[in-house]
Amino acid sequence: MQHAINRRVPRREQLTMDPLRGIPASPGIALGPSFVIRQPSLKVDRDTVKDPKAELERLESALELGRQQLNDLVTQTQEEIASSEAAIFDAHAMFLDDPALLDRVRQAIQTDRLNAPAAWKDSIEHFAQQMEAVDDEYLRARASDIRDVGRRVLRILLGKEDSEAARLSTPSIIIARDLAPSDTVQLNRELVLGFGTAEGGATSHTAILAKALGLPAVVGVGPKLTQIGPGVDLILDGNEGSVWVAPDREMQDEFRARQAKAHVVSVENQKHAHAPAVSLDGVQVEIVANIGSLDDSRTALDMGAEGVGLLRTEFLYLDRQSAPTEQEQTLAYQAILDVMGDRPVVVRTLDVGGDKPLPYLQVEEEQNAFLGWRAIRMCLDEPEFFKIQLRALWRSSPGHDLRIMFPMIATVDEVRQARALLDEARNEVLNAGHAISDSVQVGIMVEIPSVAILSDLMAPEVDFFSVGTNDLTQYTLAADRTNQRVARLGDACHPAVLRQIRDVTQAAHAHGKWVGVCGELAGDSAGIPILLGLGLDELSMTPHAIPAAKAQIRRWSAKDAERLAKEALSLASAEGVRQLVSANQA
Ligand code: PEP
Ligand code: MG
């Protein structure tokens, strides 16, 4: 198939009415009436109590009932959805036992003689706000979990009804300010067409749930969304992040046609998901998955992943009061490696720090957390802590194609230091009598421009590079990836980012090393042909994006993609690049 560079007007530009715009959180199109979930008002009167002991007892029994409800939800969710979802309620139940929270509430009752609902509400708000102040999208999203579990206990204390989610009775698009896990678990999933929320980001609970269910979702739409009444016809486009309110007949027909076409394409893509991604002229790109849990590794295989290009190990460290032990980590890595068999699995070492604080590590608040003490910087300063993870990785390696990757590398020296610690950990594991694989590859993420600029000096130090376009874009354009006001600057299709990918790929290949991309660009239909054209060996993406990505590569010839990439690199803006690719998509 030929790909002459031509410029067609994209069909969506022919639509007239303006939609509400939000963040595309899960792809797909939904059409149907709105079902609006509003949080019941939980008005709390502040009283001084005469008998704090009785008030403490009232609190304890509400907490007990809350724990019971959450345990029931864990069982129900495990049966109906997935254990990753059930883990959310486990985390809620754990929060109800958090000593810092309980001390604060009990003290407010005992010392300040506050009534239990007011003491509880204040303390929940205190912790939720603390979480919201953190400069990390994932942790900020956890603030809504705290409020969710807070509302559960508050409802019990005030003797109020549960959420209205249980009343859903016809196929609908769910609209809410922000959906809480306890709302979504009560929804009859057979009747949910999609999700739209006024608040929340790409890693909010709604986004995670929608992806797990394969339903479209648009989040962070803003307050206008909550003004929509019940039963209003909507079109929700999770690919573009748009919500059309009361669309006319013509528009509905247009989207219904798109939806039907997308369905046919997705069924067709899924049929070929397990075949390799080979371009028309015979160039194969390895398509692997970004995962963050054992559950994800199974989904990855179902979706046709040829391995794992990024295992984010943070899941082992977050939401807990103490660091995971070497044994615990070894078992967790082994479980994932066992699912993946002899396929390659790239495990990224811990990527937390100033922007993702852990309660058991002394991390001071920083003004510029994204430029601060995080990831490899923190790990190199805490070698004994770091080596626990490194030993666990060595111990999990026998019989598998394990690849270890260091995040946030800025200098050659950091690579050398990290490799030295990895060697120390290796000797410690051998001295302790454990077996290890002798073919573990070691690589780094390219997330900081200094690495791309010095990639010819970096290449001899590593076995591979994986470009983290999410961070590389924020550092290249100086646009905080969690700040919505500068979001338009942070597009990984920017030629300044693409040129760095070109340089890194050339440097890697000149030294006989492989190079992949594991940022969001790897699964983005605008990025895929360019990355094929730049000669990337591996693309790693969210599992659900794999079938479509493979199909897209099969429609291109690497030669045409190379021409497209060359033209893209000569442009001045990300929009220009997106238009170019869109005009040339096969
Ligand atoms: C990236 O920065 O592109 C990346 C894949 O890492 P994370 O999104 O986890 O920071
Ligand atoms: Mg990153």
Describe the fold and architecture:
The radius of gyration is 25 Å and the shape is globular. It starts with 19 loop residues before the first strand and ends with a helix. Strand 11, helix 10 and strand 12 form a beta-alpha-beta unit. An 8-stranded mixed β-sheet has the order 1-8-7-3-4-5-6-2. An 8-stranded parallel β-barrel has the order 10-11-12-13-14-15-16-17, surrounded by 5 helices. By secondary structure, the protein is an alpha/beta fold. The chain is built from 21 helices and 17 strands. The structure holds phosphoenolpyruvate (PEP) and magnesium ion. The site of phosphoenolpyruvate has 10 residues, from strand 11 and helix 16.
Radius of gyration: 25 Å
Q: How far is it from the N-terminal to the C-terminal residue, by CA?
A: 8 Å
Largest sheet: 8 strands, mixed
Q: SS-based structural class?
A: alpha/beta
Spell out which ligands are present.
phosphoenolpyruvate, magnesium ion
What labels describe this entry?
586 residues; alpha/beta; 8-stranded mixed sheet; 8-stranded parallel barrel; 17 strands; 46% helix; disordered N terminus
Task: Briefly say what this structure is.
The protein is α/β, with parallel strands linked by helices. Helices cover 46% and strands 14% of the residues.
Secondary-structure topology with pairs:
Elements: E1 20-21, E2 23-26, E3 29-37, H1 52-80, H2 83-95, H3 99-110, H4 116-132, H5 137-158, E4 172-176, H6 181-184, E5 192-197, H7 205-213, E6 217-219, E7 233-237, E8 242-245, H8 249-271, E9 277-278, E10 284-291, H9 294-302, E11 308-312, H10 326-340, E12 344-348, H11 375-381, H12 383-396, E13 401-406, H13 412-431, E14 441-446, H14 449-453, H15 455-458, E15 464-467, H16 469-476, H17 495-510, E16 514-517, H18 528-534, E17 538-541, H19 546-555, H20 558-569, H21 574-584
Parallel strand pairs: 3-4, 4-5, 5-6, 10-11, 10-17, 11-12, 12-13, 13-14, 14-15, 15-16, 16-17
Antiparallel strand pairs: 1-8, 2-6, 3-7, 7-8, 9-10
Helix pairs in contact: 1-2, 1-5, 2-5, 3-4, 4-5, 8-19, 9-10, 10-12, 12-13, 18-20, 20-21
The structure holds phosphoenolpyruvate and magnesium ion.
Phosphoenolpyruvate is lined by residues 310, 312, 351, 447, 468-471, 518-519.
